Amino acid sequence: MDLHGKVCLVTGGSSGIGASTALRLARKGARVISASRRGSWQARSPLSRESIGLDVHFLKADVSEPEACRSCVDQVARDFGRLDILVHAAGSPVPGGLYEVSDECWMSAFAVHVHSVFHLSKAAAPHMAKQGEGAIILLSSAAGLRGCQGALAYGVVKGALPQFARALARELAQENIRVNCVSPGIIRTPFQDHLTPEQISTNVRNRIPLRREGQPDEVARLIESLIENDFITGENFVIDGGMSMRIV
């Protein structure tokens, strides 16, 4: 898919991987709508300066609400005349094990990470079908590949996304709409701000074979390539510096 002139909706686009993806796609000539609960770049983010001169727009939306998902997609299609690409990067940490996670946090995790994908995709697919092609990219996590101690709910909801991508890819292939999933490992984003320098050092030293954290733009480059390559669908791509391949 040639990105020039395409309309792309990026959820969770105010910071981190979502913001880096929005900028990268806009640099390729896409018309990008960054949707988030904030409705703008994260405060003090250098991304606001980098976006000058690019076709980037902002939309306030809480994707944990089904109606907000539907209205967000419909507004983009109405204002820009089409929708070609959906990148779902919205998410938040859900710390805690079995005895720490409350019922409310459990349900909220599914609303933000899983239910939103269903509602966004259901709303977006008809608009893509009108164009004769489309691409949907879901942001999962390496935490969803295997048990993640101290993050039960987060691992479960992220583990659901690769399967959703596979199932949806089979269903939408007849419409020439491709669906893929990306599972990042430890990436230097505000998502990691709660970690102490000691915890970061431990992660790098003991968990990541490449001995460094990933950068948001490295994930954004992978997302860009999956959108542009018309012969990839139904796959989950892990980008974690080798973390998930470790046995010990």
Topology as H/E string? EHEHEHEHEHEHHE
CATH topology: Rossmann fold
> What's the total number of strands?
7
| H/I helix tally | 7
Relative strand content: 15-25%
Shape: globular
State the separation between the terminal residues, measured CA to CA.
40 Å
Radius of gyration: 17 Å
Mean pLDDT: 91
State the strand order across the main sheet.
3-2-1-4-5-6-7
Poorly predicted ranges: none
CATH class: Alpha Beta
CATH architecture: 3-Layer(aba) Sandwich
Textual characterization of the structure:
This protein is an alpha/beta fold and 248 residues long. It has one domain: NAD(P)-binding Rossmann-like Domain (Rossmann fold), CATH 3.40.50.720. Helix content is 42%, strand content 15%. It contains 7 helices and 7 strands; from the N terminus they run E-H-E-H-E-H-E-H-E-H-E-H-H-E. It has helices spanning 16-27, 47-50, 66-80, 103-131, 152-172, 197-206, 216-228, and strands spanning 7-11, 31-36, 56-60, 85-88, 134-139, 177-184, 236-239. Strands 3-2-1-4-5-6-7 form a 7-stranded parallel β-sheet, with helices on both faces. Strand 1, helix 1 and strand 2 form a beta-alpha-beta unit. Helix 1 packs across helix 7. The longest helix is centred in the middle third of the chain and has 29 residues, at 103-131. The termini are far apart. The mean pLDDT is 91. Residues 6-185 form the Ketoreductase domain. This is Short-chain dehydrogenase/reductase SDR. Keywords: Oxidoreductase.
